[in-house]
Design goal:
- The structure is a single chain.
- The chain has four helices and seven strands.
- The chain is of the alpha+beta class.
- A seven-stranded mixed β-sheet has the order 1-2-3-4-5-7-6, with helices on both faces.
- The radius of gyration is 20 Å and the shape is globular.
- The structure holds coenzyme A.
- Coenzyme A (COA) binds next to strand 4, helix 3 and helix 4.
Length: 197
């Protein structure tokens, strides 16, 4: 064949919240997370933890009321995940802002547009829950993720030069935010016409 051959394979992708983890899904989720970590990860772990630890981690995530886990499927199997983390209830001053965290797609499932849709699912849930801001942070070396977040309208507002420590070296990290709706007009406190009286 003279032309460059392209093998087009039809794959079905789906994005969904995961509120309960069944054994088969857990295996797929752990496989995907492990391979993403080995590939350079970027969502906290530098080396994959033992499988049992990873399994307990994901089982725990779905039990935490402030965490919302979304997964990406390729032909029915989980290959990607992301979480929406709500602020702790005692943090009244920051009750307007939620966090998008731990996004990953297994290396073999990349290039199907799964991560922008996962980011959109998190954003939609944050809007439904009434949040005004969605924040995230990541290592400055995560080029693909930076493309994805900036493509979804997140704006970088700071860089921490000592964000992570990898193999004894500091790695900078970027902080991003997206405002989800306009700030409601603040009610002005009523002032007395003649405060001296
Ligand atoms: C970030 C990640 C989720 C993206 O996976 P994906 O949805 O399959 O994304 P794609 O492979 O389609 O790439 C997304 C975009 O980044 C670009 N990209 C991919 N690899 C890149 C690289 N090494 N450098 C720069 N850009 C890159 C792609 O061209 C694409 O841009 P486009 O949509 O304008 O074409 C995946 O790379 C990943 O899991 N990385 C490791 C974990 C991570 O970084 N998580 C985020 C920090 S919490």
């Amino acid at each position: 064949m003279g032309r460059k051959d392209t093998l087009m394979v039809d794959v079905k992708t789906a994005i969904e919240p995961l509120e309960e983890v069944f054994d088969e899904d857990l295996e797929d989720l752990c496989d995907a997370a492990e391979s993403a970590i080995l590939d350079g990860g970027g969502f906290g772990w530098l080396r994959p933890p033992p499988r049992a630890v990873l399994g307990r981690y994901f089982r725990g995530v779905v039990l935490v009321p402030e965490r919302h886990l979304f997964v990406g499927r390729l032909d029915g199997r989980i290959v990607a995940a992301v979480q929406l983390q709500e602020p702790p209830r005692n943090n009244e001053a920051q009750a307007h802002a939620a966090l998008l965290t731990t996004l990953f797609v297994a290396p073999w499932a990349r290039g199907h547009g799964i991560s922008p849709r996962l980011v959109q699912a998190v954003e939609k849930q944050a809007v439904e829950l009434g949040y005004l801001m969605l924040n995230l942070d990541l290592r400055a070396t995560q080029d693909a993720a930076i493309q994805v977040y900036e493509g979804q309208g997140f704006e970088r507002w700071a860089t921490n030069p000592a964000y992570a420590l990898v193999d004894g070296e500091f790695v900078p990290g970027h902080y991003y935010s997206k405002q989800l709706r306009k700030l409601p007009k603040a009610k002005k406190p009523k002032t007395r016409k003649n405060p001296a009286k």
